[in-house]
Write a structure and sequence with these properties.
17 helices
Length: 507
């Protein structure tokens, strides 16, 4: 690594200001605190940084002891994508469940409670909500993270979510602009391409983002996707036509534009993170998100130096970098003012109040989101411990494989002695042998995208027609089973609601 600059001159500080890096550990490393002192204005948190609310509050207090206006960001969508409860599963259902209920006041209340918990832990920028219209049911990365396939439904719930978060002082970051819903490629792995005309983009993808901008979302996150009708050459994150022309000028957005993770292959594989970051700022982005994978000091210094060098060589106008840094500081000032007006308490005070996992509004919402369909075979509520067969697909990168999902733990709580097995393309005979005489609960996730799941379910039902099927992904496949329960997401509270339905104590 070559360090091009020294000291704390304005250019260097601006370059540090526009970075939103991650780090490893549950306390802030010395290098991070040092860079905050030199001008780094934002820090991104991931599941690896969080053990408990108390620990998280102590961590954010440690960061603010170095600089009281530092932005602390997190990727906390609730539902399948949780960092606060990465080891337990979320206390809140995700967007698909909320969209299926279609009660904007419920969505607002869920976002408000989630925001309240973030505030108590000292977090003030949430990389959420997803405003993607999930028009492609084969989408491997959005799916239940979207409120649904209808643009108007997604728009009204995006607005409610933004209102809920920002009403308690957490800046919302509406994503993934200009819309990641109509893709069949995960941008963590490669560059997705959407080839629809401008009319479709304006009547579908852009509807929720227009609504979010009108509602005052403080930040918008760009998508690493190629939309040929807008820019046939560069992904949205690197496109002046999309970030400056469309988002700034046409939609009138004046807040912070944040990139999706720059180490994602959709950008990194072609441009590299250093050139990609320079191009993103030049295109109109204000903050570079990095740290989901690359989370060390060298990465911060490489990106800082790349931005400084680009200004010095004329590739990046200095006023564009200064404008980006000013927008970061403006958002930091907004969040700082909210903290000052907040209950007069230190972040982390009364962290445990009302935060017991699985309680209150999140469980209420998960119960309301259930869709229960009875099959032709008679179903009676289970009173004896069943066998839970979980058909487990590969988790996408955004969700990760650390967060538990399913209903076995919740059924064990209600029916002690419940046993479970996890299967990847199983033989029906293996499941039947493991179940023995127990009734079977088969749990799937996006069965419509996995033919082996449908085949396994059909085989199980032929042998054991009293099998209960629980779908915890998109509810696109035809209902199967003596009882078919669609949870519209795999959050822990969705599993609890489903378990209650299996034993007949819930919906």
């Amino acid at each position: 690594m070559t360090t091009l600059v020294h000291g704390s001159d304005t250019l260097t500080r601006d370059a540090l200001t526009v970075l939103q890096p991650g780090f490893v550990g549950t306390t802030a490393p010395d290098w991070l605190l040092r860079r905050i002192g030199e001008g780094l204005s934002s820090v991104g948190l991931f599941g690896r940084n969080i053990v408990s609310p108390e620990q998280l509050a102590a961590l954010t207090a440690q960061l603010r002891a170095e600089r009281d206006d530092v932005l602390v960001a997190i990727d906390e969508e609730g539902g399948d994508v949780t960092r606060l409860e990465v080891k337990q599963g979320s206390s809140f259902p995700g967007n698909y469940a909320l969209g299926s209920v279609d009660d904007v006041e419920l969505t607002r209340a869920v976002a408000r409670e989630l925001g309240r918990r973030l505030v108590q832990c000292g977090v003030d920028l949430n990389w959420a909500p997803s405003a993607d219209v999930n028009s492609n049911a084969e989408n491997p990365v959005i799916g239940v993270r979207s409120f649904g396939p209808d643009p108007d439904l997604v728009a009204r719930h995006t607005v409610a979510y933004v209102d809920g978060l920002q009403g308690v002082g957490v800046a919302a970051c509406t994503k993934h602009f200009p819309g990641h819903g109509d893709t069949n490629v995960d941008s963590h792995d490669a560059l997705p391409r959407i080839d629809v005309d401008l009319a479709t983009l304006h009547t579908r993808e852009l509807v929720p983002f227009r609504a979010a901008v009108a509602a005052g979302t403080k930040a918008v996150m760009s998508a690493h996707i190629l939309l040929s009708a807008l820019d046939p050459h560069r992904p949205a994150t690197l496109s002046p036509q999309i970030l400056t022309g469309l988002l700034r000028q046409e939609l009138g957005f004046e807040g912070l534009i944040v990139t999706d993770g720059m180490e994602m292959q959709a950008v990194a594989a072609t441009y590299g993170i250093e050139r990609g970051s320079v191009l993103a700022i030049a295109a109109g982005a204000d903050a570079i998100c990095v740290g989901g994978g690359l989370c060390d000091e060298d990465t911060v210094l490489q990106l800082r130096d790349a931005l400084v060098n680009a200004v010095r060589t004329g590739e990046l106008p200095e006023e564009r970098l200064a404008d980006a840094a000013a927008r970061v500081r403006a958002l930091a000032a907004w969040t700082q003012a909210h903290r000052a007006r907040g209950a007069g308490s230190v972040p982390g005070a009364a962290v445990q109040e009302g935060t017991a996992p699985g309680t209150d509004i999140g469980l209420v919402a998960a119960r309301r989101a259930l869709k229960v369909t009875r099959g032709e075979h008679p179903h009676t509520p289970m009173t004896d411990a069943p066998y839970v067969a979980s058909f487990t697909p590969v988790a996408n990168f955004a969700v990760g494989d650390e967060t538990p999902w399913g209903i076995a733990a919740e059924l064990e709580r209600l029916l002690p002695g419940t046993e479970t097995g996890s299967y990847d393309e199983p033989s029906v005979d293996a499941v039947l042998a493991a179940a023995g005489e127990r009734r079977i609960v088969a749990v799937v996730r996006d069965a419509h995208r996995h033919p082996w799941m449908i085949q396994a379910l059909d085989g199980l039902l032929a042998a054991r027609p009293d099998t209960v099927v629980v779908e915890m992904g998109l509810n696109e496949a035809e209902p199967r089973g003596a009882l078919h329960i669609a949870t519209h997401g795999a959050a822990r509270v969705c599993g609890r609601a489903a378990a209650e339905a299996v034993v007949g104590t819930g919906a």
